[in-house]
Predict the structure.
Amino acid sequence: MRRSILTVAAAALTVTAIGTEVSARDLTVVSWGGAYQEAQRKAYFEPYIEQYGPLRDEPYNGELARIKAMVETGDVTWDVVQFEAAEMVNACFEGMIQPLDWSRLGNTDNLSPLAKMGDCGIATIFYSTILAYNGDRITEDVPQDWADFWNTEKWPGKRGLRRTPTFTLEIALLADGVAPDEVYDVLSSEGGVDRAFAKLDEIKHDIQWWEAGAQPPQWLAAGDVIMTAAYNGRISSAVDEGQPFEIVWNGQVFTLDGWGIVSGTDNLDEAYDFLALTNVVENQARLATEIPYGQMNGKVVDMVSAEVAAKLPTNPVNRTNEVQFDASFWIDNIEEINERFNNWASR
Amino acid sequence: MSDPSLTRFERNSVRLTFAAAWLVILFLVLPIIVIMPLSFTGDTLLSYPINDWSLRWYRVLLEQPIWGHVLKNSLIIALASSALATVLGTLAAVGLTRPMCPARGTLTAFLLLPMIVPIIITGVASYFFYTKLGLTNSFAGMILAHTILSTPFVVITVSATLQGFDGNQRRAAYILGARPLYAFRTVVMPQILPGIVSGALFAFVISFDEVIVALFIAGGDQYTLPRQMFSGIRENLDPTIAAVATVMIVASLIILALAQYLASRTKRRFTR
Amino acid sequence: MSATTVDQTDDQGGKTQASKTMRGQLRRANRARRLWAAALVAPLFLMVVVFFALPILGLLTGAVHSPEYVQTFPRSAEVVSQTDSFDEPFYEALYQDLLSAYETRSTGVAGRRLNQDLSGFSSMLRSATRAAVRGEAPPEGGYRDWFATQDPNWIAAEYQDAIRRTVPIYTDIFLLKAMDLERGPDGGISFVPEGRDLFIDVFIRTIWISFQVTLICAVLGYPLAWALTRASTFWRGIMLLGVLFPFWTSLLVRTAAWMILLQREGPLNTMLLGSGIIDSPLTMVFNRFGTIVALTHILLPFLVLPLYSVMRSIPNDYMRAAKGLGARPVRAFLGVFVPQTMPGLSAGAVLVFIMSVGYYITPALLGGPNDQMISYFIAFYVNDTINWGLAAALALDLIVITMILYFIYQKVTGTTRIGLGA
């Protein structure tokens, strides 16, 4: 990052450097860890290894800094990385990931038009942030929407929310009665952000903040929280393992994640092979079966069981009052709102 | 303890203080002890009472290759960095305790800085710097960073034993015609060896326990035990973590015993 | 230091030839010994300089060094620094800059930097770049108007000010920001508006949590250290084990232990509920309570050990003498014993304070958002938002605080003794 003397010293040292590997690096794919990455292992990583050769996968938690540092110094050790929508746009715009050549992505005929995430990204899942609760702890008179999430008198106990303003402000406005398709209009308008924070104020002391997607199901199981915002797939995975969790689809915040190829990678061909493999419809169906996230290929819905289809966020039945996550709003405003969010959460 | 010259008030105060001291010791020890039985639960929740005792989570530990992998990494990094730190730290400590050492105070203060500067800063700074050298995501980088972090402890322990060392012995060796290196090896070394070993032990533990630098520098191939525990605690706090913790507690008890043994040996040597 | 003393005494001594030779020999011998000592320290010294001091200096320069704009948009930067006016030449240069930055795919680097200053630049730059690349060439001489049609903010004074602030390679914006200050359009420094201030609070909180932890450590550690000096050899051994066992146990294990112990359905709540002391589980984790308890647990040995080693060296005679002279026990204790333990207590306390000021792992895992200390925000700005300038400025502040404390510590303990007393 900082040039000048240090770079010179650094360069001098590199000459005498201790053990810099020269050998070819295996294709390295980076995703969000936990149950999701396990599902990806079965659907994508293992088939890749079988078909093409070695692949290494690593978990991360959205640390763009690592990629930026890699690209700036040319020491690229990650090849294919999964991004959230807003980060994808930023990463592309800053040259951290490279424009994709769609002719090398395999069969993209049946992909959703949303799959093209700017110049550099290809979407891999639709997922949503939903309200979840433990069916053993709330048995009758269950919560129906985010307004109920705010009702601490009827359902006392902690609530889990993601420790970022993204998703959280949307949820707060939904709870405050804003229509799903007006959420970003309100947020962009004068006082809209204030309104969201004012709503969050109401339950501030009942919030337990999570940072990793694996935390909410764990807290629900342990009874640390009575209900929580969570990624739908993580909750469904826990249900598959026998947890009595319930999902409230009403008011889901719907968004997508995608793959990007890190600029300057030595494994470009392998990276394209991998992305092409993730576009094979059978593999996508396998992923949806392992963890119920929506797939880009429209045919997947016909290939999975009805039971799986019912759990997908893309299922029309589940899409009542959904908010479509607006990446461009957040790209512009994340810095300023982060400041406010940290300030607010600190008090 | 019961001194007859003390008044009743004093005796009571003494008793009360001892009671308080034991309570503090309980506070220090109990939380660590309490999680050990939880690793033998057959349940998935970490809570008492344990109805169903089982070795289930130790089996999980053995079946998941990741734990063996990170343990191996931790051992490699800790062994290499403590060896490096011990050599560098011992040499420096010997130099620093020489009567002719220039600018000793400033130099010592400087060499101890890695222990004082918050590790988050060392971690972030090393991260930016090592990236330029291609040392992030490499064992070399982890070893180097851990060496830096642990040298102050070697310098401290070795200096401490050297301060108890009588310089006349070395001078006597010189007069008898010993060359400096020979004198060091045969006269100084044996006497400060306990200090060196406990410095090495310290360095080993510092590296074996370090997580912040690992968070920034280690790639997936270099994940260490604490780094994996950090993810585990945050993402999946199940009894596997208690099992790992139990194994590590037993390991630390062994190290503690070793350290105590060395300390008692050092003390015996230097009581004049 | 001792070398100069030798020289001085020699100067005062005789000036004969013999003494001159002696002096020369002595000086040579001393030089050789100095070199020897220096050579022994050199390897570690060099290593600490290169792999510790240099990286930290590099990190800290990032607090003021911010070349993103100039590197990405050199032409318009030139215009601004030459003329300081936002007219046609500026917008024409910016138009060219957008095209060439698109080629090198670096627009976002300046975009992020500008957006950190004022929200909105990211999408303004994206849409303008798209339009420019599409070849929507502006009418002759109409670059300013062209930008205005892309987004009226391009010609707004507020946004021009932000560009003006971002152009210089050296900036104080991050240093100011780390203290909740900002520079107004007139160049004056003022506090950021309420609702956006954060860091003064974070610093106060960091100091306050560290202070509480230090105080609790002192209150718990003092009787323990005293009891250690009074116990019989056997019991002292047992008690020392009790102090050293957590000290040698992995930090992550201890943090995990507290996390398990304090959680809602963890052992402590179960016990309290079972014994009827409480009727509903207490929240003890992800809040200030959990943070302070765990920090105290982790740092307590660092206070007890130096304190114990000082107390051990205090002879009992003074207390007896004071009492023999008629002082009441409490007075003898406070007036005679306690003052003698102060070096150990203050050394331990400063050590605990230094360590807790920079703590990261434990608050990150056991605290909620309003228990996060300065370290958390350094990691946050490095990793999550890539605001490396701000992270560096916060790191600088943290280093300054730590160095002041280290200085105090050295004054308290005397220069080279930083032993842990065990």
